[in-house]
Amino acid sequence: MLNTFQQANHAALPEADAAELSRQEFVKSLKHYVQQGILPGLGPIYRTRAAERFQKETGRAPADRHDIRKAMVPDAYFQHYASVNRISQELLWDSVIDSIDREGEGLIARAEQAAASNKGELRIGEGFEVPRYVSALDIHCMPGGYAGRPGQDDLRLGALYDRGVFLYAMGYTGPDNDDMGRSVCLYIKAKLEGFQPRRILDLGCTVGHSTLPYKELFPDAEVWGVDVGGPQVRYGHARAGAMGLDVNFAQMNAEKVDFPDGHFDLVVSHILLHETSGKAMPQIFRECHRLLAPGGYMIHADLPPFDLMDPFTQFILDNETYYNNEPFWGAMRELDQVKLAKDAGFPADSIRFDTAPMAVMMFAQAEAAGYSLDAADAVAVREFTAGEFAPGGGWEVLIAQKQA
Ligand SMILES: C[S@@+](CC[C@H](N)C(=O)[O-])C[C@H]1O[C@@H](n2cnc3c(N)ncnc32)[C@H](O)[C@@H]1O
Fold first, then answer.
1. Residues 360, 363: Cα–Cα separation, whole Å
2. Considering its fold, how many domains does the chain have in total?
3. Which of 42, 95, 175, 313 shows its CA 20 to 30 Å from the CA of 362?
4. For a substitution probing ligand 1, which of 184, 224, 227 has the most ligand atoms within 8 Å of its CB?
5. Rounded distance from Cα 204 to ligand 1 centre (Å)
């Protein structure tokens, strides 16, 4: 785990003063306490009293994660866990909003200056319609959600996400919040030998945390990050400029991307799919197929399917659905993604789930292959431990190749 002050600084990042920093450290530590101090008690509570109570009331043992939820929700210990967890999430965003409000126009001016040094394009959709599954609620309780009010495109929501998600992940995704993108990039380098994408598209990029490693590791490629959140891509463009990378950003819907057929060699996404819907996902897969050139790859890194874990773990992870405004979090893990890819046109024998080892595991290999991670990344990747996205010790990826 990294400390609050170990997020890599850049010109567009909100600057916290001492009081704000200590509030941020408090919320990050509170989250850590919830996970390390309270959460481990849920298992014993379930085994020693909640399952028994369920059995007495229904005449049978809990059969799946839904039954486990019914058994646990009335329990005072679970209620305590769920409420402190929710409060820590709300406090987290509040602690960052304090810095953004105090900095005001100063932060916007800094970000705009950084944006000017990004030679990549920025496209914001005029009258763009944000899908309801994003606009209807503030996903992970982030005030304003990803997209903000219709037409809102100031940089503050992006700044809020950039800092807030570092605290949410408790620094486990590294100083640039980019472990997922970096890990998938290293996976591509290691597993898809000789594959040199010339045009890369990252769907649901938010502020480009996972997008930028593609530019670092494929410097000659044209890299695009697209997202339905106007404030997010505007900030992402500025952040890339602040980090010295020329990367293109656009406000676009992954269901209907404004690029011609066969335009990209590689289409990726990182924790996008679970933020969409059962109706949107098949359309996104079809769109990936349309956008790819023959022989191109689609790779989605997202939450592992529930059938890879026991019902109690499913119940724990599914708490995000119920208490963190993530309505599709559980349902997405039950969809047959291999079938979706097949139905979208990918040849059956090209589709597979795999694990992209976290950058921590790839570190030695990356160095041997001549890619350098800077010192701060090295510290972060070494400390990175398997989180809920990666029960097998890596990021779960669905990979498919368009017919050559
Ligand atoms: C969890 S965030 C993704 C994080 C990001 N990929 C990363 O690795 O840092 C999910 C993002 O998906 C975006 N999103 C949801 N539905 C979308 C869609 N249909 N098209 C494009 N972006 C979408 C949201 O606006 C949000 O920014």
1. 5
2. 1
3. 313
4. 227
5. 3
